[in-house]
Description:
Layout: E1 2-15, E2 18-26, E3 29-31, E4 35-40, H1 46-53, E5 61-66, E6 69-70, H2 76-86, E7 87-90, H3 102-112, H4 119-128, H5 144-157, E8 162-166, H6 174-191, E9 194-198, H7 202-205, E10 210-215, E11 218-219
Parallel strand pairs: 4-9, 4-10, 7-8, 8-9
Antiparallel strand pairs: 1-2, 1-3, 1-5, 5-6, 10-11
The chain binds adenosine-5'-triphosphate.
Amino acid sequence: MNVIETQHLTKIFKDGASEIHALNDVNLTIEKSTFNAVVGTSGSGKTTLINMLGGLDTPTSGTVTIDGTVITGMKDRELSIFRRKKLGIIFQNYNLVPTLNIYENIVFPVDLDGRRVDKAFVEEVIHTLHLKERLGDYPYQLSGGQQQRVAIARALAAKPSVILADEPTGSLDSKNSQNIAGLLKECVDTFKQTLVMITHNLELAQLADRVVRMEDGRIQE
Ligand SMILES: Nc1ncnc2c1ncn2[C@@H]1O[C@H](COP(=O)(O)OP(=O)(O)OP(=O)(O)O)[C@@H](O)[C@H]1O
């Protein structure tokens, strides 16, 4: 079953008189419960693609379907509810809530949705991400790498069917990157989640079931 599908997905950025074709007629299907790495040179369209899959930006043309629902053209409110229920997005800038402590940040999306937190699972995530000692702290007290780990924990805690990640281990050392990639892989296998992760790290890409290679806004598998 395909959990993600794009049809003729195109994004053109206008820059003065010139146009940048960041995505060029991308037709991508991603199967449920798979780990997908997106690789490609700088400027090839990876972040633009992830933003479109997460409904964070609107395509110039084409559509995105997630779990059978066409999200393209959805109203903002509808889209943010859909996103909260179905998607875990790990941003490059962590977007933690400054007035909530680390634990509250991690369970925030689940709380917002009025769902029960799976405490045992959240504890495992916290343990793997080495956040146990920091749960009562506030985001400003954490380093960039620690904040990144909180953002990953937050995305996983809600057990979304799709996890979108843009360089989730970008500011971490190689051992921590491997551990976190291992945890993400475990989530894919255990909870049948689907992961689409941009990475420049070829070691991490090797853990993936599929490597999607982008070049000039197109997929070159
Ligand atoms: N908001 C924007 N306005 C104008 N051009 C943009 C915008 N966002 C992206 N672009 C352009 O679209 C192209 C694709 O950018 P994108 O960020 O998707 O690449 P990327 O593969 O993620 O690169 P990197 O690996 O460096 O993060 C680039 O040429 C970029 O300059």
